[in-house]
Amino acid sequence: MKAFKDAGHLFRLASVFLVGGVLFLALRGFLVPRSFGQYGHYRGNAIKETAALPISYAGHQVCESCHADILEVKSKGVHKRVACEACHGPLAKHADDPASIQPAKLDTAVLCVRCHEANLAKPKSFPQVVSAEHSGGAPCDTCHQPHSPAIVAVAGASQ
Amino acid sequence: MQIPVEGFMYPNEVELQWSVLIVLYPFLTGLVAGAFILASLERVFMVKAVKPTYRLALLTALAFLIVAPLPLQLHLGHPERSFEMYLTPHRSSAMAMFGFVYLWYLLAVLVVEIWLDYRRDIVVMSQGTTGWKRLVYRVLTLGSTNISEHALHIDERVGWLVTVIGIPSAFLLHGYVGFIFGSVKANPWWSSPLMPVVFLFSAMVSGIAIVMLLYMLMCRVRREPIDMDCVDTVAKYLFYTFIIDFSLEMLDLIHRIYEADESFRSLDFMVHTRLFLSQVVIQILLGTVLPILLIGLTQVVKLAATQRKRIYVAAGCLTMIGIFAMRWNVVIGGQLFSKSFLGYTTYKMGFATREGLLTAVVLTVLPFVILGVLVKLLPPWPEKKSALSSVAAAAYGAD
After folding, report:
1. What residue of B is the nearest CA neighbor of A15?
2. Distance from A17 to chain B by nearest Cα, in Å?
3. Is residue A68 part of a domain?
4. C-beta of residue A137 within 8 angstroms of C-beta of residue B30
5. How far apart are CA B266 and CA B387, in angstroms?
6. Are the Cβ atoms of B146 and A9 closer than 8 angstroms?
7. Which of A27, B155, B170, B251 could form a disulfide with B36, with the two C-beta atoms 3.0–4.6 Å apart?
8. Are A155 and A132 in the same domain?
9. Is the CB of B314 inside 8 Å of chain A's CB atoms?
10. Contact B205, B319 (CB under 8 A)
């Protein structure tokens, strides 16, 4: 009995850990969502919630069903594999109601350099320019047609 | 801010993701593990000469362990989410499981050992102080004032057991930090099974050095003579550990040079250019070879106590710089080269930013502030005989 009496403080320490452990478990029961672990290491309800979110992107097939003329130009240029909404932004609402919702006009001086500003980290074969030297801040579509950006020399035009 | 890049870098490699705070994190954790292992020398391995540093080493370990996760918290975009790793632990993530290693070491080892070792003093001080201090000590007693000889004997035995469990725990704590880096197979600068062992021994080196420096500093502040037998023994262990650490690092280096895999030319160029100052000059020459030679000198030449003290202080400070440089070269060096092995980027450290230099300095100073508070609250040196021993006698009598 004396050994128990003299080890009383250790039982008190163990009680502190026990209370801490019980509090943690209670907190865990309160904080961890019920659907956690339903399908994997995440909140099961997140799937339904994400699925319920409004769709923002229409997809290039939807764009092409109306803008066949643009598709014609684009399919012949180097941007043929760039999805429409990569530059124009999410346009599902426009696709649903083309008459009243119009996409914003793009500023090519800002848009094009996101990909084409010179950077040593980019492969040398990737077209890139130092925009300040190349165009002096002028919009890229002054010379380039964004859907097919190569500048084709017009027969008879002076160089 | 344009980051200077040389050669070819993939876009996601240009800016470093792990900053100076991630350098600080293994540095602080290493000090914890090293200080604890020094403490265990006295408790488990019966090296009685280092007894004056025993309690100081434990308090140092606690002060640094409290601060150790802060650099990680500041690095996180959403620090509040880090608690999720306790609520919904992900067993396949080494980083997530580290939270449990940290908690185990903090609560089951360090706090328990300090409490058991200080329990007698806490009880005595809870009866010999007034005001808020009394309240703090009374809470720390957990309501038990039993400091009978038998109760203290039980504390001693349980404390010994905790230290025995604590040694592999300290190895686990810092070996784990090395493991996190060593297991990144995509990074040839890090990916090495030697990494946990190198981290562990460098941790022991830095922990022993900081406790040695702090002990000498505290003796000076308290105007008390330095126990030279103690400092000589600590320096001897620092020397041995340093030799093992240096050998392991050289083994890793020689292995890399001889193996010369596809990453070698790129890494070799980096060591000779961007990392030359921090790795070759600061880490290897100033931070490793020079302190080993300095302490080695005290082992082979009979020097006066004053000279030995000066050498220990110089070697200790150089060791701290060297170990910090080692962490820097691992963390920052591992992000400076491209996975293509064709280019190098630059680390631009901010100043007064969330992960900048100022934050790193504050986080380096913070453990010393915490240690100051701990030392004030739980003095690590023997009590003054007169006042407290009479209170202890009264407390013993009360039970």
Report:
1. B142
2. 9
3. yes
4. no
5. 66
6. yes
7. B170
8. yes
9. no
10. yes
